[in-house]
Write a structure and sequence with these properties.
The protein is mostly beta strands and 257 residues long. It folds into 2 domains: 3-59, no CATH class; 63-256, Porin (Beta Barrel), CATH 2.40.160. 14% of the residues lie in helices and 53% in strands. The chain is built from 2 helices and 21 strands. The strands form 4 sheets. It has a 15-stranded antiparallel beta sheet that branches. A hairpin with a 6-residue loop joins strand 14 (184-188) and strand 15.
Length: 257
Amino acid sequence: MTAVSRSVRLSESFRTSNYGGWKCFARRKEVIEMRYCTGLIQVLLVMVVGGAALAATASAALPLLLGWESKPNWSGSKSGAESAFVETLGKAKITCTEASGTGVQTSDTVGSFHITFKSCESSGFKCNTEGDATGVILSLGTANYVDDHLSTNVNELGVAILLAPEEVTVKCTAVVTIRLKGTVLCLVLEPLASMVTHIFHCTQTAGDPADKEWFNDEGTKQTPSLVTSVNGSAFEGSALLMLATIVFAEPVAFMSE
């Protein structure tokens, strides 16, 4: 083969290919065929995956409570006919027929709460926190607004309240002593609606919480954990069931940062 004819054949060996709207030139020579196209496609994949990661990171920002600044205080109560109760995986249970509380927003994502449970009992015995009246259990702690799932669509924003009560000791006469500590995750039912009254649900089945994960500001999955010890036994998993209503002085809504 002459040098001229070889040059012509090499020139003819270039063709134009179209990959998803991107034109690539591939030489029909085994050593270098498709390298350019493959490299370009890899770059595009990196861009797509990177963009998705950035979007997911952005969506992980904690929900904001809008409109709380002028009237940061709220009040709340148990709603519905069902009693509020804490149940362990071992089936021990504290049941309270009444609950009311107050709270103060200290920022757009964090607040404090003071909840009073009344008419509380376990296994037929009246229960109370140390120093309180019979049947009364007091719970103090912080409330953090968190994402219960990640989404790039604000209309799919899922907001939960992460309750972090201080550890308490509950006496049910002289027979039973119960210690509780940890965190509880409760879902806000209509987070995007600007309303004075918001409803949240803490749900469980046989001591197993229905909502088992939330996401922090970095988008890292977290797990709530409420544990209970009865008469000095090892702490075991527990969960709270309570349907509650929170009333603000002004309409507020939960939105993403």
